[in-house]
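We emphasize that the prediction below concerns an isolated chain of 358 residues; any contacts that depend on oligomerization or on bound cofactors are therefore not represented. The input was used exactly as deposited, without trimming of termini.
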Amino acid sequence: MKIILFTFLSLCCRLTGIAQQNENTKDLTATMPLSYFHGKHVVAFYPFSGNAKDISGNKNNPSFNNATLVTDRFGNKNSAYSFDGTQYIKGSCTKYPGGSFTISFWFKIEDLLSRHQSIMGYGGNTCGTSVLILFNERTREGAYRSEGHCAVNSSTTSNGYPPTTDWNNFIITSDIDNTTTKFYLNGVLLEKFENTAFKNTYITGKEFAFGTIPGPDGIAPFTNDYTLNMTGSLDDIIIFDRALNSRSVDTLYQSFKNEPSAVKAISSAELSVSLAKPALYPNPSTGKINIQYNYNSAGKTQIKVFDLAGKIVFTKTAMAMKGNNIYNLDLSHLKQGMYYLELTDGNEQTRTKFIIQK
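Result of the prediction step, given as a C-alpha cell string:
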C-alpha cells in the first residue's frame, strides 16, 4: 500500500490515542499523534510506485538503482523492487537520522538458505558508525541482526524466526535515550536489546543502500565472505528520526498491512467485461491526469477519488461512449500523496492507484 504521507501519518497515529497526562514528557512525545509533529519526524518514505523516489518531501532520492520493479503484496504491478543478489539501490544519507530512529519495511525473501543477507543500511566512517540490517545471521538460521560494522552495536535475535516466502513486515527502533534496540516482525515484538542503540551514526557525505549495505566507510555496496546482498523484494520503506513506542509501531504495521477498506480490491469474478481496468497517465503527476477506459456500450460512469483514509476527495459523473474513452481530470488542488481512482458502472467497479507529486 502506498501511503499518502502526512495525511496517512496523522490519521493512523490518531488511532493510538493521546498519551495519559501522568506520562513523562519523553513518553508523551513518543505516543502523541504524529499530526502534532506535522510530519517533521518522517525522514524518508519510499512507496516504490513505479520508481524509487522519496515522497516525504525531503528529497532523499537514490543516485543509483538497477533493481527490478515487480508486483507488490496487493497485486499492483511495478509497485515493489526485486533484488537478485547483485542489484541494489543507493543514494545520499546526509539527511538520515544520526541518532534515534525507526525503520519499517516490507520484505519478501526468495532465498531462505543464504546466510547473512544484507537488507539495507546507511552511513559509516569507521567501525560502529553505520546502521545495518541483515537477515539469516550466519550462525543462526532465520535470525535477524543489526549492527554498525565490526560487530559494534550488534543485536541478533536469540532464536530463529524464518519468514515464509510471502511478504512480511520488519520494524526496528533504536532509542539513544534508553540505549535500547527493538525488533518487530509483523507487528509482534521479537526481542529487546539493551545497550545497543546506534549513537554515533555518521551520515555526512555517506550513502543509504537497499538490497545491500554500505561498507565501514559509508559507501555502498559492500560484500565479503560473510555478507551477501539480498535475494528478494522490498517495499514501503519508511524512516523516522525517533524511536516509536509499541503502540505507534502496531498502528504503523496495521495501517500498511491492508489496503483501505473503502477502496478494497475487487475480485475478477465481480467485474463485468464491460468495465476494464482503466489506464491512468501520467503517474506520478502533479494532479492533471488522463483516464483511458473501454466500454462495450454507452452509459454513465461515476468517477471517485479516495484518499488513504477512505474519504472521497473528488467525485464526478461522466458519459461514456461505446469503445475507447479518454477523460481529462484536474486534481491539482489535492495534496501530494497516494490516492485511488474508482470507476463505477452500475454495480460494477474497478480502481487504480496513483501518486500526486509536487
